[in-house]
């Protein structure tokens, strides 16, 4: 096991090396996947190299991303604690504070404005023509995520049913998943660079202005709808307003957005449930309960087709 008590020290040493001076006070920031430390002008992300390689992916992409889209990478590398390698990445701290999933406390007009700005920034990413090295990174397979084809989604649901020996996922929910999968596309586009994790917790804003999109660890090749659905799905009480903004800004029919979001939500939930049942020690304890509740919403309540 990595000695977690030493991660602040590792972050400070990495920050000093990146800045060429003492970074000043650094505070731990909440993160589900990394140890994150924030100074006045630097952010350091740490993770045990054996955990997953996604920080490597983000570091490899950073020099190639469109200018001004995200926080500049200052330095990256490996440290070692008791024989365990720690990957670190140092980023310039951008102006603003992180928004949150569901946009809590955000007024309706501000939510619409933020959505407009987010769409504009994502369209910069979608229009980006990656260099060969960046395209190679984007094309590397991920262990989870992405719109799957009809055949692949049906295969995932079948596997979920097979491993679920105790019927944790009710038969009615499996039937609902199958009905959604029947409407999935026969093939999935992989032509466009997408962030693939652009929920509101990965955006910074200051005084109502979006300043940066963070965390490109899941970035890949897909289609714009992959990102539009993240933006819409995690907008809480503003979901219908954000869907309306995305529809207008991208000239996409609302019904297309709803159907695409429903399919993608089903794919993510089925994948998470499969993971929770096969590797329960590697996921948060609440994941299974949370994903079952979310599945009930999209299948029983048909939440993607409700208008508020």
UniProtKB/TrEMBL annotation:
<dbReference type="GO" id="GO:0016740">
    <property type="term" value="F:transferase activity"/>
</dbReference>
<dbReference type="InterPro" id="IPR002575">
    <property type="entry name" value="Aminoglycoside_PTrfase"/>
</dbReference>
<dbReference type="Pfam" id="PF01636">
    <property type="entry name" value="APH"/>
</dbReference>
<dbReference type="InterPro" id="IPR011009">
    <property type="entry name" value="Kinase-like_dom_sf"/>
</dbReference>
<keyword id="KW-0808">Transferase</keyword>
<feature type="domain" description="Aminoglycoside phosphotransferase">
    <location>
        <begin position="39"/>
        <end position="241"/>
    </location>
</feature>
<protein>
    <submittedName>
        <fullName>Phosphotransferase family enzyme</fullName>
    </submittedName>
</protein>
